[in-house]
Structures are given as structure tokens and as C-alpha cells.
Design brief:
This protein is α+β, with helices and mostly antiparallel strands. It has a single domain (12-259), classed as L-fuculose-1-phosphate Aldolase. Helix content is 41%, strand content 12%. The protein contains ten helices and seven strands. A seven-stranded mixed β-sheet has the order 3-2-1-4-7-6-5, with helices on both faces. It is globular, with a radius of gyration of 18 Å. The two termini are 21 Å apart. Residues 54, 105, 124, 126, 195-196 line the site of manganese (II) ion (MN).
Length: 262
């Protein structure tokens, strides 16, 4: 199957200098790196079918941990530097929207940054392969070493327990975001029943890695369950394999980035 191609155009790159110029802080270089990775992450997640027209990825602002960076409300494949807005972690309020609409589910991001000082990037997706594990009694677990970061049974957020059985399933408020963050706990991934998932990490690149391999793990676990009685990574294997994975992140990022049309 031919996959659609996504462009990291010169026009998008050209706006970065103007966008970053206002910061004037010592961490401006780090800021440019993070915004660059955030734009690239949007394109990669779309190209690799982790997100489609929906879903989003954010980064904590390296200039100010009380802020985070997230695109205005558009499909991830279309995100450029000019689309990245700055939000407050405390209020999920865009500081520089200038009339541009925010994602309905921006509250996912602020809630996780409030609850998890160790987290600097958040991916939210509706990746189809994980949906069955959010709606059945079969937990998503690490079936192979590439998903060792899952640790063990992935928690499932049930919106009915906090908001009843007539919601639209969307995380459209801070209380819902906070409840999702509680389900995530100290883990790297949480499923959302009948909706999707969140994947978090200390960097944008690792969050992309985790979101991608969570989806692949779900595909493989579904196939193994059809064969019957799969053997999962033990807690010790998951810990050891996860510790080795830091080196894998850059290799996959480089490949995925190069797969985008320059
Ligand atoms: Mn969603």
C-alpha cells in the first residue's frame, strides 16, 4: 500500500527564527530544538499511522516548565512551526492563539504535566490496534521487547466512573484530564476505553517511540491471542529491555524523519 507523503517544507522551517526570536532566554536553543522535534513528531506520527486526522502531541516548554507547546487544532500531518501555540500548564490556556482554535482535548496535556514533573512530552491518539484492549477484559501487555516500556498491564481509563454513561468520551475539561492522569499514574501509557490512548516520556522523541510501539504491541498481542496462550515479557525482562531502549529511540527517529519528504 502506498502511504501518503508528508512535507517538511522550507516554508515551515523559515518561520522558526521569527517564532523563537521573542524568547530571549538562555534556553532559546533548547527551545528551537524542542519545537523542531514537535513539528517533526506531528509528521512522523501521521506518516506512521499512529494518528490520523485526529490526535496530537505536545512538549513541555524548555524555557518554562509551567508551560507547554501544542499545535492549534489541525490534523497532525499539516502542522508547521507557525501552528505551535504556548499553553499554561495550570490553566490549559493558550497565551498566543490570536483567534486560532485549540484542540478540544488539550486538557489531556496540562493534566499530565501537572501530575508528572518527569514528563516532557505527551502523545494522544486513536490508534486502532489498541482500541480492543480498552473495551475488553484482556489487558494490553508487553508481548515483545520493543514495547518493554509498557512494564505490565496497561491501565484503562473508564470515563463512566467519573462522568457517567452519557459523555461524548472526549477529555473536554480539567477534571476529566486530571482523572485520566490519575489512571496513567506513574506509567508510560494509558488506554482510554472506546477512544484511544496516551503515551508519555521525558522527550518528544521517546514519546513518539512509545506511541508507535504501543500500537505495534497491540497488533502482535491480538495475533498471539488468536494462536492462544501467549507468553509475555516478565517484569524483570520488561525492566531490563526498557533500560536498553534509550539507544533505540534515536535510530527509529532518524529513520522515520528521513521517511518524510524533505
Ligand atoms: Mn481523542
Amino acid at each position: 500500500m502506498n502511504r501518503p507523503q508528508f512535507f517538511l517544507g522550507a516554508g515551515a522551517l523559515g518561520t522558526l527564527a521569527a517564532f523563537a526570536a521573542g524568547s530571549g532566554s538562555a534556553s532559546a536553543a533548547g527551545f528551537e530544538d524542542v519545537v523542531g522535534d514537535l513539528v517533526t513528531a506531528n509528521r512522523i506520527l501521521a506518516h506512521e499511522n499512529v494518528v490520523d486526522a485526529f490526535g496530537h502531541v505536545s512538549a513541555r516548554d524548555p524555557r518554562d516548565p509551567a508551560r507547554y507547546l501544542l499545535s492549534r487544532s489541525i490534523a497532525p500531518a499539516l502542522v508547521t512551526y507557525a501552528d505551535i501555540l504556548t499553553y499554561t500548564v495550570a490553566g490549559d490556556e493558550a497565551l498566543d492563539a490570536q483567534g486560532r482554535p485549540s484542540y478540544l482535548e488539550r486538557f489531556i496535556h496540562g493534566a499530565i504535566y501537572r501530575a508528572r514533573p518527569d514528563v516532557n512530552a505527551v502523545v494522544h491518539s486513536h490508534t486502532e490496534s489498541v482500541i480492543p484492549f480498552g473495551v475488553s477484559r484482556v489487558p494490553l501487555r508487553p508481548i515483545y521487547h520493543m514495547a518493554a516500556f509498557l512494564g505490565g498491564d496497561v491501565p484503562v481509563f473508564e470515563i463512566r466512573t467519573v462522568a457517567g454513561d452519557a459523555t461524548d468520551l472526549v477529555i473536554g475539561s480539567q477534571p476529566l484530564g486530571d482523572a485520566l492522569a490519575r489512571t496513567l499514574g506513574s506509567g508510560s501509557v494509558a488506554l482510554m476505553r472506546g477512544h484511544g490512548m496516551v503515551a508519555v516520556a521525558g522527550t518528544v522523541r521517546e514519546a513518539v517511540f512509545r506511541a508507535y510501539y504501543t500500537g505495534r504491541d497491540a497488533v502482535l498481542e491480538s495475533e498471539a491471542l488468536r494462536l492462544g496462550d501467549p507468553v509475555f515479557l516478565s517484569p524483570g525482562e520488561a525492566r531490563a529491555a526498557a533500560a536498553r531502549q534509550t539507544g533505540f529511540v534515536e535510530r527509529s527517529w532518524d529513520l522515520w524523519k528521513r521517511s518524510l519528504v524533505p
